[in-house]
Design brief:
With 249 residues, the chain is α/β, with parallel strands linked by helices. The chain has a single domain, classed as Rossmann fold. It is built from eight helices and ten strands. It has helices at residues 43-49, 53-56, 86-95, 109-127, 141-151, 170-176, 198-210, 228-242; strands at residues 2-8, 11-17, 27-32, 59-64, 68-69, 79-80, 134-139, 159-163, 184-190, 214-220. Strands 1-2-4-3-7-8-9-10 form an eight-stranded mixed β-sheet, sandwiched between helices. The protein has a two-stranded antiparallel ribbon with strand order 5-6. Strand 9 (184-190), helix 7 and strand 10 form a beta-alpha-beta unit. Helix 4 (109-127) crosses helix 5 (141-151). The longest helix has 19 residues, at 109-127. The two termini are 18 Å apart.
Length: 249
């Protein structure tokens, strides 16, 4: 696997593939890391998937690094798409007083969204891969961003992967999901998640389903994480999504 850095629309990105030099990928997967993680946090997921022969010869992964540094908060390598008071969030969840985030629209979300939309469009033109061959996703805060970006695209990508995300910006998402009927979604969430409660994930699932998206909801016995059962399903979902009458893997 080759791993290189690119600056795409103002975002430092890690690009991974096993393609011959100059080869055009059949599909591009863009995965956004969670709050406090480094930009390479989800690279091992791509490495795992690229060990599969059909993936290695067809798929390219992009791992964008969030623009905000958390060095001042004691996390030298930590990045964020927008600020979060994690201590308050964890305490509220522990006390059972979790504040519903569904009406939240962080001030930095539109900025991050535009950076990601520009990244996807520019990379699509650069590698000559249509949006219908892109799969977007992320973990936690990155999953929220990937959902928001997907719903602001003009057409459906091949799929959306929501790993331990939650519902926010509800009015806008509820309005925009109507324009993304048949959007393929894989959503996973731990039943004992101490940071983003399981019930809120169900609310997001229902909003997407009611808007016409095709959501596969994968609960698991665990916390704020990506367990092996989810990792295995991501690979299958990717092959199904980009092999569904669009391209072949």
């Amino acid at each position: 696997m080759q791993l290189r850095q690119e600056n795409l629309n103002g975002l430092k990105c890690h690009v991974a593939d096993s393609l011959p030099a100059g080869a055009t990928p059949r599909a591009v997967v863009v995965l956004c890391h969670g709050y406090g993680a480094p930009g390479t946090d989800l690279v091992p997921l791509g490495q795992m998937l690229l060990r599969q022969p059909r993936m290695a010869s067809s798929v390219q992964f992009i791992f964008p690094e969030a623009p905000l540094s958390l060095e001042d908060l004691g996390m030298p390598d930590g990045r964020a798409w927008w600020p979060i008071d994690m201590r308050r969030l964890q305490m509220a969840a522990a006390l059972g007083t979790f504040r519903d985030l569904r009406k939240d629209c962080p001030d930095e979300l539109p900025v991050a969204r535009e950076m990601m939309l520009g990244l996807v469009r520019k990379w699509s033109e650069r590698v000559n891969v249509p949006l219908s061959h892109f799969l977007l996703g992320g973990f936690s805060q990155g999953a929220m961003l990937a959902t928001d970006v997907t719903l602001h695209l003009d057409e459906n990508p091949a799929g959306l992967v929501i790993l331990s995300g939650t519902l926010l910006n509800e009015d806008t998402w509820n309005e925009r999901v109507a324009g993304h009927k048949a959007l393929r979604v894989l959503q996973s969430h731990g039943t004992n998640d101490p940071i983003l409660p399981f019930a809120a994930a169900g609310t997001l699932r229902d909003l997407l389903n009611h808007g016409g998206a095709d959501v596969e909801f994968l609960p698991f016995a665990g916390g704020h994480e990506i367990p092996h059962v989810v990792l295995d399903r991501i690979g299958t979902f990717l092959r199904e999504a980009i092999g569904d009458g669009r391209t072949s893997l």
